[in-house]
Design a protein that fits this description.
seven-stranded mixed β-sheet; single chain
Length: 382
């Protein structure tokens, strides 16, 4: 008789974690039918069902918002409520079609539909109007939505996207040659940078610096806000010649930031091809890194390191991935947006910190933003 030790034992499959086993149970149709009859479980099942439907209907919701913005419905009812019939006449729609749009907007809490049939503005609808540049960005999303029409193709890569044609500046100084495209880009960035500037100035004390150089600062929205908050700090702006030339000649129509004030020293150039100007003890990169590949970012941070004095600081402000806890604003939206741009990617604070360390920076600090969909901040010292 063979010794028990000589008998090969049947290999046991590793035990599945409890969470995976519970998910497997919840995924079964039989359990879903059972949960629908049990009060506590019924509440969970219903909430999950509603959340899934919101994911399915999300694109339609965004298109309702776009229609309201394109037809200027929110502004038409900003001062006083109007009837559906009056809105239909001013928007050039049939009354029944206008009714569909109004009810859709009310369901999204953008409009208020009164018992008397009058259409008014809600707090959420008013907020859309109050955010600088939001309406223009909503309309600009047509290009992104077309790129997302086939998300698998986008993830597979290899085909040209509309966003990659809208943002030609990311390919270097030679890329931004169309003044109309440059003006449109500059206007969008000027308005969106107002919120970025507000949050960045809230997280970083810039009064400690003598002179700040903003790379890729466009129309100077950040430096304008910095000048108002810290008038004693010197300010320098480095961007592509076509951006700065257009800014000098033509105010940005409809933009909250037009021509930058004369206290800012302008330095035209491309950070890919030209040296960075010296003299600043702080260099800021606001919504710059996520436009570019790791190779380009590494080269840029090396230049930033070389342009700063010993003890000088770099401040990086942009939307960042949630790291170990994915964030729907950045891991879902911005990660796909930058993927469609085809030149860069959205990174976590830890990834940006690693790139800074590789460039020779020290004392890296990650400052999560209180509005991650606007920006978060990473700082470091030379």
């Amino acid at each position: 008789m063979a010794d028990a030790a000589d008998v090969p034992s049947k290999a046991r499959a590793p035990a599945r974690p409890l969470r995976d086993r519970l998910i497997g149970v919840f995924a079964s149709r039989g359990f879903q039918r059972f949960a629908a009859r049990v009060p506590g479980l019924r509440r969970i099942a219903r909430a999950e069902g509603e959340a899934i439907f919101d994911l399915v209907a999300g694109f339609v919701h965004s298109q309702v918002l776009m229609a309201l913005v394109e037809l200027d419905v929110l502004r038409k009812v900003q001062d006083r409520p109007q009837s559906v019939e009056a809105l239909a006449r001013s928007c050039g729609l049939a009354v029944d079609r206008m009714q569909v749009l109004i009810r859709a907007g009310a369901s999204l809490h953008l409009l208020h539909l009164g018992r008397d049939g009058q259409v008014g503005l809600t707090l959420r609808g008013a907020s859309v109007l109050s955010v600088p540049g939001l309406e223009a960005m909503i309309l600009h999303h047509r290009a992104f939505y077309r790129d997302m029409a086939d998300p698998v193709a986008l993830l597979q890569g290899g085909s040209q996207t509309e966003l990659s044609q809208f943002w030609p500046y990311v390919f270097g100084a030679a890329g931004a040659v169309d003044p109309k495209v440059t003006a449109q880009y500059s206007s969008l960035m000027a308005d969106s940078q107002v919120l970025v500037a507000e949050d960045t100035l809230r997280m970083v004390d810039f009064s400690q610096f003598r002179r700040v150089l903003d790379i890729g600062g466009g129309t100077g929205a950040f430096l304008s806000a910095l000048g108002a908050a810290c008038p004693q700090v010197g300010r320098m702006l480095f961007d592509l010649p076509v951006v700065l030339d257009g800014m000098r000649k033509t105010p940005l129509s409809g933009s909250v930031s037009t021509l930058i004030d004369s206290q800012v020293a302008l330095h035209p150039g491309s950070f890919r091809d030209d040296p960075l100007p010296a003299g600043a003890d702080c260099i800021t990169l606001n919504r710059v890194l996520y436009d570019h590949s790791d190779t380009t970012v590494a080269a840029l941070l090396a230049k930033v390191h070389g342009a700063l004095p010993e003890g000088g600081s770099v401040v990086i402000s942009e939307p960042m991935l949630g790291g170990s806890t994915p964030n729907r604003a950045t891991d879902a939206y911005f990660a796909l947006y930058t993927l469609a741009m085809q030149t860069g990617r959205t990174r976590s604070g830890a990834e940006i910190g690693a790139l800074l360390a590789a460039a020779g920076f020290r004392d890296v600090r990650i400052l999560p933003g209180y509005r991650p969909f606007v920006t978060s901040v990473v700082t470091a010292r030379r």
